């Protein structure tokens, strides 16, 4: 609103505290307390271990505070990142071209065969379609694509505009499925419905509907079989983990969803165990499989030497077979002997450095805290987009005193806390990269935009090497000091 004074339009003066509140933190290594402005309503999503807030549980899983510029993505994006790596599926986005363009090859997942998933298809809705409806255009697109590519399964994603105009995705997909004799599954992922977490759940429901009940005839197997949930094979991580399991005497039926195929997904109910890497995206599916088919699940993490070794042992203990336990220890001993000397070199160079972590899921954040300790670094700020209450309880237990813990942070908070905490490095995703670089802080991508694996023992070496290369780069001596705490 403009105020008119003497014929001149001026904006009214208002204090920042009208929509912000101050919270007091103790900077790590600092001499005293420091006030940090938080958007009104955000105080419950920020805690500092060891200070007055530590007895209060952090809020999580809630909707983003209006106006905070959340780093979270939309429902459509969440569904897309989970389903996109299904390699032989046809993925059709029903909406404007921008939605398909934004998420084309969003996971960048590697595959060992079919590559149809890397083709981007959209109904490209225009103004006329939005006014008169896009169902006819969707039906025509399905006819053309199914005839041309002959996929075994089709995923059709709704977007915001489709949810608004009310196109009947279910009816169009059902008609196409009956016409061509293949599953054509609507993914009800209108972005405005909620956050990325809702998209994960929507994708899990779609995957669950593809899974067939196991046949009643008894299956005799020489080796136990598992499903590996929550690995999207960004840079071959799923292949690394499968190689460890094979040496242990355990077979993998399907990876949800990195380098997966429709037929593999269909027989997921025949597995003896589900293991979950990314709990944020796949915990819901694991629960549904346990409820429907009584398949137990374990939460694992193959990030870092410590967590990789413990996860392999956890799987071996579950099957409780002496041969598997013995082979597991042999695998761990061989890998540790190979990677420990190189990691030790990086640890010497990185000792005393400080890291900030902002990632999607809580379990990844937990593993990264441990992994940084393996290379001699302290995590001084840690946050997630979709962390659960149990994740934050573990983070609170293992984090050092003074660590800032955030849920659903915004860019202003991340920048301020990185400077206040004296971070030398930020680990995050593509949206966080510019925040670090403009502050003169090193950055490591732990999300989609990379082509070197960070899982397993080899991944631990790659991570240590990348952290060392970026933190110890001489470029920072030319830019350090360019931004001070008072500038934000």
From TrEMBL:
Pathway: Cofactor biosynthesis; Fe-Mo cofactor biosynthesis. PROSITE patterns: NITROGENASE_1_1, NITROGENASE_1_2. Pfam families: Oxidored_nitro. It comes from the Archaea. The keyword Acetylation does not apply. Residues 74-471 form the Nitrogenase/oxidoreductase component domain. Keywords: Nitrogen fixation. This protein may play a role in the biosynthesis of the prosthetic group of nitrogenase (FeMo cofactor). Belongs to the NifD/NifK/NifE/NifN family. This is Nitrogenase iron-molybdenum cofactor biosynthesis protein NifE. The gene is nifE.
């Amino acid at each position: 609103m403009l105020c008119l004074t003497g014929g001149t339009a001026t904006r009214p003066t208002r204090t920042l505290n009208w929509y912000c509140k101050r919270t007091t933190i103790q900077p790590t290594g600092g001499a005293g307390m420091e006030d940090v402005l938080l958007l009104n309503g955000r105080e419950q999503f920020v805690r500092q271990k060891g200070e007055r807030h530590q007895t209060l549980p952090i809020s999580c899983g809630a909707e983003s505070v209006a106006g905070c510029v959340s780093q979270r993505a939309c429902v459509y994006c969440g569904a897309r990142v989970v389903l996109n790596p299904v390699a032989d599926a046809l993925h059709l986005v029903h909406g404007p071209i921008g939605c398909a363009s934004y998420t084309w090859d969003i996971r960048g997942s590697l595959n060992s065969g079919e590559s149809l998933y890397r083709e981007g298809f959209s109904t490209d809705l225009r103004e006329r379609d939005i006014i008169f409806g896009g169902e006819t255009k969707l039906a025509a697109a399905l006819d053309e694509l199914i005839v041309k590519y002959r996929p075994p399964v089709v995923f059709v994603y709704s977007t915001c505009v489709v949810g608004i105009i009310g196109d009947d995705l279910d009816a169009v997909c059902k008609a196409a499925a009956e016409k061509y004799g293949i599953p054509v599954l609507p993914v009800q992922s209108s972005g405005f419905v909620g956050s990325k977490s809702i998209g994960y759940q929507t994708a899990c429901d779609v995957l669950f509907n593809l899974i067939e009940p196991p046949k009643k005839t008894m299956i005799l197997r020489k080796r136990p079989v598992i499903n590996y949930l929550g690995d999207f094979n960004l840079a071959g991580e799923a292949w690394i983990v499968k190689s460890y399991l094979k040496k242990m005497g355990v077979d993998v039926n399907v990876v949800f969803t990195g380098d997966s195929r429709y037929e593999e997904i269909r027989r997921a109910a025949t597995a003896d165990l589900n293991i979950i890497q990314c709990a944020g995206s796949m915990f819901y599916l694991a629960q549904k499989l346990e409820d429907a088919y009584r398949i137990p699940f374990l939460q694992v993490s193959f990030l870092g030497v410590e967590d990789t070794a413990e996860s392999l042992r956890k799987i071996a203990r579950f099957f409780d077979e002496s041969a598997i336990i013995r082979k597991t220890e042999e695998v761990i001993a061989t890998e540790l002997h190979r990677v420990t000397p190189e990691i030790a070199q990086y640890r010497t160079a990185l000792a005393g450095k400080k890291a900030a972590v902002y990632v999607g899921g809580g379990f990844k954040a937990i593993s990264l805290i441990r992994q940084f300790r393996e290379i001699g670094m302290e995590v001084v700020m840690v946050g997630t987009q979709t962390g659960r209450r149990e994740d934050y309880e573990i983070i609170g237990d293992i984090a050092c005193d003074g660590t800032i813990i955030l849920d659903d942070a915004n860019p202003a908070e991340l920048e301020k806390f990185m400077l206040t905490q004296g971070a030398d490095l930020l680990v995050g995703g593509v949206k966080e990269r510019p925040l670090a670089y403009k502050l003169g802080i090193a950055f490591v991508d732990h999300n989609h935009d990379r082509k070197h694996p960070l899982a397993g023992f080899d991944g631990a070496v790659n991570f240590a090497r990348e952290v060392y290369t970026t933190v110890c780069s001489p470029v920072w001596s030319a830019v350090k000091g360019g931004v001070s705490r008072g500038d934000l």
